[in-house]
Amino acid sequence: MNTTFILGAGASFDCGFPLGNKLYTDILQDGIPATAANGLYQWQQIRNQKASEGYSFKKGLKEKYEQFLPEKDDSDVLSTLHRLHNQLNSSLHESIDYFIDEFPEFAWWAKISIAERLLIKESKLFQNRNWENKKEIWYSELFRSRLLSPAHLKDENVKVITFNYDRSLELYLNHFYRNTYKKSANDEDRENFLKNIPIIHIHGSLGPIDTMEHDLTRYMDGEKVPVIIKAAQNLKTIQEGQSDENFQTAKKWIRQSDKVYVLGFGFNPENTISLFDVDFPDFTVGTAFGHSNVQIREFCDRAGNVFYHPRRRKFPIPEKAQINDAIIPKEPRLVNCSIPKLFSHHYPLTEMPNGKFI
Fold it and tell me: How far apart are CA 260 and CA 303, in angstroms?
């Protein structure tokens, strides 16, 4: 059985991460990305010292910052950041991703701002290992199913396609897998658990899984600037993500899937049209929490009717087309509900016997 999860910003919301419009306003309210900007600014000031002054570089500082300065002629980092802030304040965009695509000259510093905001959230998750609301987060539904159990993990062939930068899913699964299974999973299986779940971040992530815990430890120990910069380098704009080979791999996974769950996805035109132009399996379900029936039908049309079954038509459907109910049912499998409710009330994941972990 091939099962693929497609995740949007709503899938990380329960973990404390902002939706697209909230991330935009958070960055705007911050003014400038203080930690990373100040570190880079300090290095630029040092770099600009005249050699005649006999200034001695602090050990390691040159290597630490020089390679990360933007390859622009702009001589003043803070001036660039203030121009970025003013442009954000004057824009009607609700997503920082769309803003970057429209103003590519600010892409680097916008990515710095994104990385700084999200690393604050991610480091708190990493620090609070017990996750106070761990059973309320939908990730726990995966543990209640057989999808991730040691006995069935490889047979279930779970894959994840996420449009999110954060690694909350990886943090959650890695921590609780280690602390949920002992007898039924050996040490090597527990340590290498995430390697058995292919995860693609379409727009990049805050860093590779292999160094995730190390980087977050450095961040909490005060080495914020290099960790923020490393994360920013790993982020991609919408256009960069769609031209990346990972995007083609994601489409391949969808075509090979028996089941697809679309969770917390925003269905913006660019991502939807680009990703949903492949053949989805008959079992394709999703959430559209907080959206009206009219909006849900619009999303379904935009996604090529993959949420209707049986289906025969590809998008777009002409507005005045006579649609045979036998071909496209009236009610799509895109539901106005939370992710946990989708599993508990509508389309349950494959359950474990007696609800136990085996």
Answer: 13
Q: What is the pLDDT of residue 254?
A: 94
Q: Is 80 exceeded by the pLDDT of residue 193?
A: no
- The reply to whether 106 falls in a domain is yes
Task: Classify residue 252: in a domain, yes or no.
Answer: no
Q: Is residue 323 included in any domain, yes or no?
A: no
Interval 285-334: pLDDT, tens:
999 998 888 888 888 888 887 888 655 444 444 444 444 444 445 578 89
Report how far residue 256's alpha carbon sits from residue 3's, in angstroms, rounded to the nearest whole number: 9
Do 92 and 17 touch, CB atoms closer than 8 A? no
Q: Which domain holds residue 93?
A: 3-243
Note the pLDDT of residue 305.
Answer: 79
Determine the residue type at 113: S
Q: Are 6 and 161 a contacting pair, CB within 8 Å?
A: yes
The mean pLDDT of 92-116, rounded to a whole number, is: 84
Residues 330 and 64: their CA atoms lie apart, in Å, by 59
Which tokens go with 268?
Answer: 């913006």
Classified as helix, coil or strand, 88 is: helix
Q: Spell out the residues 6+ positions from residue 254 whose beta carbon is closer than 8 angstroms to its own.
A: 4, 6, 161, 260, 275, 278, 279, 280
Whether residue 226 lies inside any domain: the answer is yes
Average pLDDT over residues 59-67: 52
Q: How many structural domains comprise the chain?
A: 1
Neighbours of 345 (CB within 10 A): 11
pLDDT of res. 263: 95
CA angle 47-52-58, nearest 5°? 40
Helix spans in the chain (H): 20-30, 34-47, 61-65, 77-90, 96-102, 107-127, 139-144, 153-156, 168-180, 187-191, 212-220, 224-233, 238-243, 245-255, 269-275, 293-302, 339-341
